């Protein structure tokens, strides 16, 4: 019997997750199904139980009102994890007061980022190991921008964790008819286990997370793309075997992908150089934060207008489209003229390390930001990179819902 069949067989008598719609829910206690096989009596609240751990394998989530009137997201932990590690590996611990949302890469912190990477590696070895986590539950995926990789990877990740993904757009909710973000967040919190949002404004995502009582995941905003950067770092770790002594060059627009890569590399001790045309550089505040993190972790951050300087000696060369979602089509001609010297072609790649790889977050425009020779050539790892979005999204959901991410500080 395969892994999925084994888990399904083993969880036939498990108590599935339930929830109350009230935001003021406060739960304590524990539960163990009677050995006689009689119908269990479920206490109010959130309870999940994994039969592989017997009575000890459950997690209860307590929600208590904060002083500001919101609802705090904390855990009551009986000392067991949601699922065992792969191949007998030690499972990641469930943590009291764990991180509730994933809004930016920097906010995840170094230790949590490494934990997500480890969990993603486990998901690649056994894609259905966490099948009981969302059994009988839903995750709402809100897309205010088009999506291929993010949407399909998150929908599949939810399914692999046993849940049902509900993908909705702006015209399928009441947001465009005047319902507030806060009211929407509170309503969805009563129905779903998590909320994944892909939209324009970072402030909208922060408002949703502040009002929600379920995990909120930023699946792309104008300023950040944390899920992409975590998947990229997973790819680089698989290619390099580690991070120390390696260099990533990003060439093109100082956009949301560049921002999240700056944050990820500086947390993990990867040297990063970003080359953009004048006027298209990354956000100065994000660069300043990356510089602080890089100093703490023994790496460097370079921002330049010279693509050759950025690529020289790099172990990976990364680019993105020249016209991002949200940019006006009226800017196309101006942008193409500004970015043309920044195309990643074989001449630019020749300045990188001999075994350097090429990365792109996709969709790509051959002949613009990258030549067809490079994109389709032997150095390209773009489809390996794209495939890693799935275990990454699965790991992010598992880490947040499994309360596995430790509270962070700005320096962590």
The percentage helix is 25-40%
Kindly report the name of the CATH homologous superfamily of the domain at 233-385. Aspartate/ornithine carbamoyltransferase
Q: Which structural class matches the secondary elements?
A: alpha/beta
**Biggest β-sheet description:** 5 strands, parallel
Mean pLDDT metric? 81
Question: Any idea what the radius of gyration is?
Answer: 22 Å
- End-to-end distance: 42 Å
Question: How is this structure best described in words?
Answer:
This protein is an alpha/beta fold and 412 residues long. Among the domains are: 1-98, no CATH class; 233-385, Aspartate/ornithine carbamoyltransferase (Rossmann fold, 3-Layer(aba) Sandwich). It is 34% helix and 14% strand. The protein has helices at residues 3-10, 105-108, 110-125, 149-160, 181-189, 202-211, 226-240, 256-268, 284-297, 307-311, 332-339, 346-349, 372-375, 382-387, 389-401; strands at residues 46-49, 58-65, 71-76, 138-143, 164-168, 194-198, 216-218, 247-251, 271-275, 301-304, 316-319, 357-360. It has a 5-stranded parallel β-sheet. Strands 5-4-6-7 form a 4-stranded parallel β-sheet, sandwiched between helices. Helix 3 (110-125) packs across helix 15 (389-401), helix 7 crosses helix 8 (256-268) and helix 7 (226-240) packs across helix 15 (389-401). The radius of gyration is 22 Å and the shape is globular.
């Amino acid at each position: 019997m395969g892994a999925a069949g084994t888990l399904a067989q083993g969880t036939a008598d498990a108590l599935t997750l339930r929830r109350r719609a009230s935001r003021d829910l406060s739960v304590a206690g524990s539960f163990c199904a009677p050995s006689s096989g009689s119908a269990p009596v479920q206490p109010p609240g959130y309870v999940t139980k994994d039969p592989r751990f017997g009575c000890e394998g459950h997690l209860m989530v307590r929600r208590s009102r904060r002083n500001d009137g919101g609802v705090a997201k904390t855990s009551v932990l009986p000392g067991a994890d949601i699922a065992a590690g792969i191949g007998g590996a030690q499972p990641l611990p469930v943590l009291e007061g764990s991180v509730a949302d994933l809004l930016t890469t920097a906010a995840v912190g170094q230790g949590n980022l490494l934990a997500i990477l480890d969990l993603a590696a486990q998901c690649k070895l056994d894609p259905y190991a966490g099948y009981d986590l969302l059994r009988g539950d839903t995750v709402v995926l809100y897309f205010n921008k088009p999506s291929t990789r993010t949407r399909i990877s998150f929908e599949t990740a939810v399914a692999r964790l046993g849940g049902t993904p509900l993908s909705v757009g702006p015209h399928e909710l009441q947001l465009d008819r005047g319902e507030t973000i806060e009211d929407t967040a509170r309503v969805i919190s009563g129905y779903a286990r998590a909320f994944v949002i892909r939209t324009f404004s970072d402030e909208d995502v922060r408002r949703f997370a502040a009002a929600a009582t379920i995990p909120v995941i930023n699946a792309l905003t104008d300023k950040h793309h944390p899920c992409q950067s975590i998947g990229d770092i997973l790819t680089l770790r698989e290619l390099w075997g580690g991070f120390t002594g390696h260099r990533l060059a990003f060439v093109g627009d100082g956009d949301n992908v560049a921002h999240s890569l700056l944050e990820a590399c500086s947390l993990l001790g990867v040297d990063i150089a970003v080359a953009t045309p004048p006027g298209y550089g990354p956000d100065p505040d994000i660069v300043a934060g990356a510089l602080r993190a890089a100093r703490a972790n023994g790496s460097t951050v370079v921002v330049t207008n010279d693509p050759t300087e950025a690529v020289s000696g790099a172990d990976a060369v990364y680019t993105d489209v020249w016209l991002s979602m949200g940019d006006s089509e009226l800017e196309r001609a101006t942008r193409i003229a500004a970015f043309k010297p920044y195309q990643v072609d074989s001449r630019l790649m020749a300045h990188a390390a001999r075994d350097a790889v090429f990365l792109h977050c996709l969709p790509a425009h051959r002949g613009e930001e990258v030549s067809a020779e490079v994109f389709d050539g032997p150095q390209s790892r773009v489809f390996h990179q794209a495939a890693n979005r799935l275990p990454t999204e699965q790991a992010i959901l598992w880490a947040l819902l499994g309360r596995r991410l430790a509270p962070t500080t700005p320096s962590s």
